[in-house]
Please model this.
Amino acid sequence: MLIKDLLDESIKENDVNLQALIMFLVFEKKVLSMNDGTHELDLYFLPKHNERMGNELTKFKEKMNMGNSASCYRVYTHEEETVYVKSIDNNQAMLFVKSMGLNPVTSCYVSESELMLYNGKHQTIKEIIKSMPVPCYIGSNQTEQQYKWRN
Model:
């Protein structure tokens, strides 16, 4: 897989940290190109670079105004229930659902423009989550999972 493909995937998944890492290395430091293989990123994930890269990426995200904004995530569970939560990333969404006593299987980003029936009214995800705390339970659907996700 190429770095440009990984960047596209990180945008789809709303992974701001991975987007920042790629943009920092490709556009800011110019040590990699979008046509390099993703294995070229392995060096930057070595434990000996964690602290320095963390500091560099924090500064870069501030410079580029790439804050960790919360989004909606759809989490599929072993209980065959689909749970929607507002969280910073997939990991937080999975942990939050686990804290609810459910067994999460996988999760995915939900676009802010997606419509959802919420409190009897069709609204965009953006409208629904704008004033909710992070992390936060939005709702669930007990029949959706059988049609949208299967191993």
